[in-house]
Design brief:
The chain is mostly helical. It is built from 15 helices and no strands. It has helices spanning 3-32, 35-43, 49-57, 63-73, 79-88, 93-98, 108-129, 139-145, 151-188, 190-199, 204-212, 217-228, 234-243, 247-254, 259-284. The radius of gyration is 19 Å and the shape is globular.
Length: 286
């Protein structure tokens, strides 16, 4: 591998990462203005919370799964609603896919539709099968009691510092993943890399689902980049992003009181992801 090739890989990775950074930063600033209202809306729609949970999860940022997990721990939403949020969310994947304008960009629409329908259906089934625990009705009052006293500093952090820090983190993830993938493909050879994935194409939905279990934005970005580079099929992309709930699952794992629920939710999401991925691949191809 020559230094010229390495330089090309770094330059391409930098260009892609800069575009993603700009998009992520803009989206997070906009969402910062509506996050509390969206959470309040979700909590106070008990009868249709699963439906709105699936819609809420479609918001392209990792904060949706984190907020969903926090609402569940505090007993503001049901387990089915949380499952709906986890299955429908895609972390930063949608932003990565939308910043690559090619023939695959249009597949974002069926991806969103599939995740919404699957999240809603599975969420309803989960709430039907498992007994709904008591739901706290005092979200609005509890939320006001925990607000920070220094409003000016809070707003500065919420509307500028936090979006900037998170966007920089995503920029680094995208850059590192692009560099690693680019160097691997350059070293192994694009034809050899593609041949390996093709020879194991029947396992790619499972592989993608396992990658999606990693509780980090990097996993959804990696799955998206592999799809964009034609290394994963749409079914494998769907499988990986269905099970990927970003830092939301980590929030549940940190809470000792929800360990059993967390394992149940993890199992439901993983089985749903693998099953849906293989069904999609059987219909549209591996």
């Amino acid at each position: 591998m020559t230094w010229e090739v390495v330089g090309d890989v770094l330059l391409d990775a930098l260009k892609d990462s800069a575009l993603v950074f700009a998009f992520v930063f803009l989206v997070h600033i906009l969402l910062a203005f509506f996050e509390e209202k969206l959470a309040d809306f979700l909590v106070h729609r008990k009868k249709t919370s699963t439906l709105f949970g699936s819609l809420f999860g479609l918001i392209p940022q990792c904060g949706t799964s984190v907020l969903g997990a926090d609402l569940y721990i505090k007993k503001y939403i049901t387990i089915g609603t949380l499952v709906a949020i986890f299955l429908s969310c895609s972390d930063e994947a949608l932003i990565v896919l939308l910043t690559h304008w090619n023939e695959k960009t249009i597949m974002v629409l069926p991806l969103i539709a599939s995740k919404f329908v699957i999240g809603f259906v599975i969420g309803v089934l989960v709430d039907f099968i498992f007994r709904k625990r008591e739901i706290n009705e005092d979200y609005h009052e509890d939320h006001k009691c925990h607000q920070h006293h220094d409003e000016e500093n809070t707003n500065l952090h919420k509307f500028l510092i936090h979006p900037l820090i998170h966007s920089l983190e995503i920029f680094l993830y995208v850059f590192m993943i692009n560099v690693v993938l680019g160097l691997i493909i350059a070293a192994v050879g694009e034809d050899n890399f593609s041949a390996f994935l093709v020879s194991n194409r029947y396992l790619t939905p499972l592989f993608s689902s396992i990658i999606g279990l990693i509780p980090n934005c990097a996993s959804s970005i990696l799955i998206s980049e592999l799809y964009i580079s034609n290394s994963l099929s749409f079914g494998s992309l769907l499988a990986g992003l269905l099970v990927n709930s970003g830092l939301g699952m980590m929030i549940l794992l940190k809470n000792k009181n929800t360990i059993k629920d967390t394992l149940l939710i993890l199992g439901i999401c993983f089985v749903t992801a693998v099953f849906s991925g293989y069904i999609c691949c059987l219909i549209f191809g591996f």
